[in-house]
From TrEMBL:
The keyword 4Fe-4S applies. It comes from the Bacteria. This is Amidophosphoribosyltransferase. It comes from Pseudothermotoga hypogea DSM 11164 = NBRC 106472. Residues 5-225 form the Glutamine amidotransferase type-2 domain. Catalyzes the formation of phosphoribosylamine from phosphoribosylpyrophosphate (PRPP) and glutamine. GO terms for biological process: 'de novo' IMP biosynthetic process; purine nucleobase biosynthetic process. It holds the Pfam family Pribosyltran.
């Protein structure tokens, strides 16, 4: 599963020639949330300058580019596409020009009423350069005129779906979280600067102090007069539980819950719910590592690094055939033969999406001499697609939506397969279930989703 995006923003009360470097470091810490493109926009009181491109943060920025981007307000973005494909035009921040000036927007999430919003704008003759929902937001805002705060308060009433937004003009910065608070967004302090980030790890990376999470339905304006908070509609919180399962870094704290602690507890509960007679617990790195430690702590079965990850592989571009995809997994992971040979193994991962990778890992461990392999998953079966910022809107691609557990067990070649229950996962996270979105597990969507929602909506039309 792929997360949609990571956001970082900063407001400094005085001009800061190094402001884009701070954003750059913040984006590096958020790189796990999106590896397709990266961008930074900076306001210097007169205009907005920006630079963006396809690739990792380090591919897109260098010393010379960062040196050009000085000012006192800045936002940055790393993207994985959930609406529109991976082309330069869809990279963010999206900068749009209006009669009264320019606006830069960075978005994490997915808007689900995009078709009607886009057609409203097209009827008015507004130009679209991208196929993203984020450009729709940018154009809706610029159309409202120069008062950025009022534009935000107005436009957020018309948006449906998941959106954390950072937006800026040449002088001010605004942070917004949708009324259901699907995606994380927090605020911090760095000396006399105000900082916003998708995850607390980005605050840690730049040396900022955590202040608080932005609340669902909150709009926070930061300018020369200070910090001003406004509340829009609030229905109920529906924070994405998958942030705890997989998306967020384990060293982040979301909704006052340590991601590491939640994953360790999930592993412990998994060991109680799905015990196995084994000699060794192995986690699939990095996604299953913490839950595997929890499983080992609870069961008393020793934990070992039976799978070694190539840290330098980044993304693999090998995709065109199953044979080459298998090679991609072998480039990323290798079994530690000396450790696994002759052993009965509990293999822990955070989730199974399509099942192909897990099948290859099981095969790899068998080839390395494992006697038996008991796959344990630290979340329930994913049976429903996500329309709120994760790239799984096509249910047919989810193995648990089309096959029963016994069939999945056979398909991946495991001796046994066991999932954590939904109750167990919610208990591990420690937040009330009515504050969480659990839709990919139970099919109960916090918002009604139009049937036409797909990633490439505006490329088909
Ligand atoms: Fe998160 Fe699943 Fe809800 Fe999507 S459907 S927001 S992945 S919990």
């Amino acid at each position: 599963m792929k997360e949609s995006c990571g956001l970082f923003g900063i407001f400094s009360p005085k001009p800061d020639p190094k402001i884009s470097r701070t954003v750059y470091y913040g984006l590096i810490a958020l790189q796990h949330r999106g590896q397709e493109s990266a961008g930074i926009a900076v306001g210097d009181g007169e205009k907005i300058k920006y630079h963006k491109g396809l690739g990792l943060v380090n591919d897109v920025f260098n010393e010379e580019v960062l040196g050009e981007l000085s000012g006192h307000v800045a936002i940055g973005h790393v993207r994985y596409s959930t609406t529109g494909s991976n082309v330069f035009e869809n990279a963010q921040p999206i900068v749009v020009a209006g009669q009264q000036g320019s606006l830069a927007v960075a978005h994490n999430g997915n808007i689900i009423n995009t078709r009607e919003l886009r057609s409203q704008l097209e009827k008015k003759g507004l130009p679209f350069r991208s196929t993203t929902d984020s450009e729709i937001i940018a154009l809706l805002l610029i159309e409202q005129g120069p008062d950025m705060l009022h534009a935000c308060l107005d436009v957020t009433r018309t948006l449906q779906g998941a959106y954390c937004l950072l937006l800026m003009n040449q002088n001010s910065l605004i942070a917004i979280r949708d009324p259901l608070g699907f995606r994380p967004l927090c605020m911090g302090r760095l000396d006399d600067c105000v900082v916003f980030a998708s995850e607390t790890v980005a605050l840690d990376a730049v040396g900022a102090e955590f202040v608080r999470d932005i609340e669902p339905g909150e709009v926070v304006l930061v300018n020369e007069n200070g910090v001003e908070s406004h509340k829009t509609a609030f229905s109920r919180s529906a924070f994405c539980i998958f942030e705890f399962v997989y998306f967020a870094r384990p060293d982040s704290v979301l909704e006052n819950v340590s991601v590491y602690a939640a994953r360790e507890r999930a592993g412990r509960i998994l060991a109680i719910e799905q015990p196995a007679d084994a000699d060794l617990v192995v986690g699939v790195p990095d996604s299953g590592t913490v839950a595997a430690i929890g499983y080992s702590n609870q069961s008393g079965i020793p934990y070992g690094m039976g799978l070694i990850k190539n840290k330098y592989i980044g993304r693999t571009f090998i995709q065109p055939s199953q044979k080459l995809r298998n090679l991609g997994v072998r480039l990323k992971l290798n079994a530690l033969r000396e450790l696994v040979k002759g052993k009965s193994i509990v293999l822990v991962d955070d989730s199974i999406v399509r099942g192909t990778t897990m099948g290859q890992i099981v095969k790899m461990l068998r080839t390395a001499g494992a006697r038996s392999i008991h796959v344990r998953i630290a979340s329930p079966p994913i049976r429903y697609g996500c329309y709120f910022g994760v790239d799984t809107s096509d249910r047919r691609e989810l193995i648990a939506a089309v096959l029963e557990e016994k069939k999945i067990e056979q398909l991946i070649g495991a001796d046994s397969l066991g999932y954590l229950s939904l109750e167990g996962l919610v208990k591990a996270v420690g937040l009330p279930s009515d504050r969480l979105c659990l839709a990919c597990f139970n099919g109960i969507y916090p918002l009604q989703v139009p049937s036409f929602c797909t990633k490439y909506l505006f490329e088909k039309e």
